[in-house]
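Case study.
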Amino acid sequence: MNAPEMAISVRGLTKVFGDRKVVDDFDMEVPKGAIYGFLGPNGSGKTTTIRMMCGLLTPNGGQGQCLGYDILTESRRIKEHVGYMTQKFSLYEDLTIRENLDFIGRMYRMKDRRKKVDQALLDLGLADRAKQLAGTLSGGWKQRLALAACMLHSPQLLLLDEPTAGVDPKARRDFWDEIRRLSARGVTVLVSTHYMDEAVQCDALAYIAYGKKLISGPAAEIPKMIGLSTWRVDGPDINALEAELRTTPGVGQVARFGAVLHVSGTDAAALDRAVSAQKKRETHNWKRKEAGLEEAFIYLMAGASDNFTEFAGKA
Amino acid sequence: MFSLARFGAVLFKEFVQMRRDRVTFGMMIGIPIMQLLLFGFAINSDPKNLPTLVEMADTGPVTRAVLKGMETSDYFKFVGTVTSKQESDRALREGSASFVVVIPANFERDAARGLRPDILLSADASDPAAASGAVSAMTGIVQVAINETLTGPLQFAARAPPPFSVSIHRQYNPEGKTATNIVPGLLAIILSMTMVMITAVAIVRETEKGTMEALIATPVRPMEVMLGKIIPYVFVGYVQTFVFLVAARFLFDVPFTGSFLAFFVGFNLYIVVNLALGFLISTLSKSQMQAMQISFFTLLPTILLSGFMFPFAGMPGWAQAIGSAIPATHFLRLTRKVMLKAGSLPDITGDMSAIAFIMFVIVAVALMRYRQTLD
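After joint prediction, the assembly is written out as follows.
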C-alpha cells in the first residue's frame, strides 16, 4: 500500500470524567505535513482529545500513536516532539517576553537556546520589545508569542487548541499565514476552531459532537459526504421569506449571509418542490448552488446543538 | 434615581455567588464557630493540674499537709518522685513536669525547732502565664498547712514569722518576661503563616492562570516542577529565621542557650512540614483566594491551640489532642527548649518525631490528592 505516513493515528479513544463520557470511541488519522481542522461545538470534547494526544491526559480506553510513539506509554517522548498551544494564554504574564521563551527553551533542554530565542524574537518582530512583560501584550501578540514559544523546540507536530479565539481578523490572517508556512516546512498541524473561514484553510477536517466523531475527511469532500443540496436566494423582504422558509416542509435549514439566504436540505427532491412553489411567485431570485462547508457545518451544528445545552446544565 | 429593583438584583446575585463559592461560604460559617469554641472552651489562661514532681528528703505531718494542700488547690498534679537535681532538671527541660517540689532533709525537725527551713519550688517559667497562678497560690497553701498541723505543743511555731518558707525558683525566665516566652514561639507562627500560605498560593496560581497546562505539556517531570517551586520558599524560610534570630537577640534580649545544631535540624524539619501542608492545601483549592482562605483556617488553631498564646497545659483534653496534631505545637516546644532551656538534640527527639509523624501523614494525603488532580 502507498498510504501516507501518519503523524497521528488513534482508534477507539475514550475519556470518562466522573460518570460523563467526554470522548467516546474516537478515531483519527492525521497524515504527516497536513493541516487538520478539528471542529465541534463548545464542550464537545475537542480539548480533551487534544490533551490525550499529547499525553496530558490518560485515555480510559483506546490506543494509538503520535509521531510513532504510543500515546499510552510514551507520552514523555511525544512531549519532546510536540508543540501544544493551549486555549488560554499560558505563558507567564509577569515574565518578560525573552524570559518566557528562555524558560520554555530550558524546559526542552535546548543546547543552542540563546540563539534560538534570539531568532524567535527576530521572527516575531519583538526583538526590541524583548524586555516587555508578556502580560502587557495585546491579544494578537500574545497569540503569536504563544505560537513562537511552542515552536521553539522545532516540533514535528503542532497541537493548537482554538488558537485564534478572540483575536482580530488581521491577526488571525497573519496567524494562518504562519501556520501555512510551517506546514510547507513539513510540520503537521492539528488545529481546533470555531471559524468557518479557518476550516476552509485546512486540508482535512473532523467534526466532533457529544464526544463522538460525526464526520471526517478532506475539507473539499465534507459537503458532498453530508449530501446537502442548496439554493441561494435574494430579493425584497428577506426577513419574511426566511421566517416562512423555516416552517416549509422539505427545507432543512436556512442560513443568512447578509441579504442572501442559503436554503439547504438533505432530501433534494423535497427541497426542489418547496423551491419551485416559491419560484412561481416570482418575488425572489433563486439560484442553485453547490453546498459549501458553511452549510455543511451549520447542518452539523444544528444537529448537535442539544449537547451544548446539556453540558451547560452540568457545568 | 435609586432603584429598589436594581439594588435587589445586585443583592440577590451576591447571595447566589456567595452560596456557590463553597470554600468561602464554609469559612464564613466555620471561622466564627471555630473561634467561639476555641476561645470559649479551649482557652484557659489560669491552667490547673500542672504536672508536678516531688523530691522528698524528709517526710512528716507538715510535709504531708503542704503536699496535700498543693494537690487540693488543683493547680498541682503530682505525677511522680525524683531523687536528684539532674533528674528534676531534665524533667523541667523536657517539659514532662512544670514544677518540682523539693523537701529538704531534716525539714520536719528544723521546722519544729524554728530554724525556718525552705521548701524549694522550681517552676518552668518559660511560660510565665502558665506558672503564675500556681506560684501565687503557694502562699495560701503554706499558711493553711501551718495552721492545720502546728497545733498543740507546736503552736508556738505557727506564730509569725512562719516556721518555714517556700522559695520559688523560676527557671528559664527568672524575670518572668513575656517576650522571653512569646518570641521563641513566634518563630513557629511566622514560619507556619508564611510557608503554608506562600506555597499553597504559588502552586494554585500556576493552575489558576493556566500556565500549569503549558508547563506539563513540556517534557518536565512533576518532581522537577514541585521541587523547583518549593525550594525557593525554603530559602525564604531561612531568611525569615535569620532575621528572627537577630531580632530576638538584639531587640528583645532573648537568650539562645542551647545547641544550634538541634535548632537547625528542627527548623528544617519544620519548614518541610509547612511546605508539605501548603502543597496539600494547593491540591484542595481551585483559586488563589481559596488557598489563602484555607491557609488562614489552619492558622487559627495554630495560634490558639499550639501553646503560643495560651498555656497548653490549661486546655481540656480534646483541645490538647487537636493541638498535638499541629506541627507548630511541637516546634514551639522545640524552640523554647533550645533557646531558653539550653536544650540539645536528645532533648528534642520527642518533638522531632512528632513533627516527622505529622509530616508523614500530610505528605501521604498530599500525594494521594496530587495523583487525582493530574488526571
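Observations recorded in class. The first strand of chain B starts at residue 50 and ends at 56. Chain B has a mean pLDDT of 86. We will return to this complex in the next lecture.
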